Amino acid sequence: TLAVVLFTQDLRLHDNPALYAARAGADQVVPLFVTDPAIAAAGFAAPNRAAFLAGCLADLDAALRRAGGRLLVREGDTAEQTAKLAAETGAATVHVAAGVSGYARRREQRLRRALGDRLRVHEGSLTAVPPGAVHPADRDHYAVFTPYHRAWQQAPRRTPLPPPRALHTPEGLRGAPLPTATPTARSLPDPGEGAARRAWQHWHGDRYADLHDDLAADGTSHLSPYLHFGCLSANELAQLAERRGGPGAEAFVRQLVWRDFHHQVLAARPDTAHADYRPRKGGWHRDAREFEAWRDGRTGFPIVDAGMRQLAETGWMHNRARLITASFLAKSLHQDWRPGAAHFLHHLVDGDLANNQLNWQWVAGTGTDTRPNRVLNPLTQADRYDPDGAYVRRWVPELADLPGREIHRPWRSPHRPADYPDPLIAPETTGHRVRASLRPPEDTL
Ligand code: FAD
Fold this sequence. Notes:
By secondary structure, the protein is mainly alpha-helical. α13 packs across α14. The N and C termini lie far apart (54 Å). It has 3 domains: 125 residues, Rossmann fold; 106 residues, Serine Threonine Protein Phosphatase 5, Tetratricopeptide repeat (Alpha Horseshoe); 156 residues, Orthogonal Bundle (DNA Cyclobutane Dipyrimidine Photolyase, subunit A, domain 3). The site of flavin-adenine dinucleotide (FAD) has 28 residues, from α9, α11, α14 and α16. The site of flavin-adenine dinucleotide has 28 residues, from α9, α11, α14 and α16.
């Protein structure tokens, strides 16, 4: 018998339930990836992610070849192409990992219509605990992190599956060439499962608990692109970290729980990729010039500009900087989170619908934060998380000569270079910018 495995966000051989089940139930396995124009049309195939994805697919193909298989790439509508390949090969089963987005759900429904009970959808590939596996008594998902975290710690977890062997992919199947793409970032992390596993092994997270918020120390794992494309299984990674132990590992697993938390919210409420999780009172302020200054890293607030420039140059941004820059747009400039989130998605190599949109909503006060009115004052944040200004000096080099903390308040400094902009809004109001007259709703974004 023959089984098709449709790869989506699970570009790995280790702990891959769909691939493992396909091999266990058939003599021959056809691994498939479909380049779907719908993803490009939705703006999701942004250059940095497309380039990283291309590298991951090449790596996946090489790994599959070592296991006696190879990756077949087809172009077109995913459900149609998969059904066509299943018909061509006489596949008895087609395996795919369950997704959480509205797009993934529709894809599953269409695959189900085309393939009937030959389709096998595998839960628990994307997250360590599958969405819906734990939920409060009276609803289908957790809206607050702390009780979710407690429930997550009690939830059963799968023993990681070994990579399958002897896939016996038949010869002679027609495939498209592996895709290629050029990133806008200067350099991207090495793509693929092998690189992901090496990155984990080489990362010494012992001081993670102390350092993960220190912007200049850059002490986080940088595993997010690998988790987004599934080069690493979140389930396996959580267990590897737990086995490593210590306070660093505990804090690290907590971040993986945040990832699962946002995924279970999106799975239950796919509309929150665009719609507010909690409706917000009042409109948003709209000012294209202010938005462009934020986007281009020219707000005159060095800590904000440093984050935005790190994003543009590298396709990645430190979590603390994501919080500060997003809060500046939504809470200090009072602008709608959606264009901000779209700008992040355009650049982030780890750009992820669940993590990006729901973190943005958390920051903007439309999401799951239990204190939706909190504002991260960029100056207080800068003093706390970049105390000697080393992060700003790295990303805003024209300010490099400003000593110590003076770098966070260039408007007060005699060393301020002429080409660095004035602060976009009065510095003393960044924590609580008063918008006396928000425009009426019809004029808001
Ligand atoms: P580490 O600190 O090493 O954490 C390990 C892993 O845990 C990460 O790789 C990630 O998968 C997960 N994680 C950590 N923090 C969070 C979090 N707050 N929410 C969800 N998962 C988390 N993360 C993305 O993967 N994609 C995004 O598009 C994304 N957009 C964000 C937008 C905003 C406004 C904010 C505030 C955060 C966003 N995050 C996003 C979460 C977080 O910033 C990144 O996951 C993290 O910076 C990635 O770096 P790391 O792998 O070194 O993280």
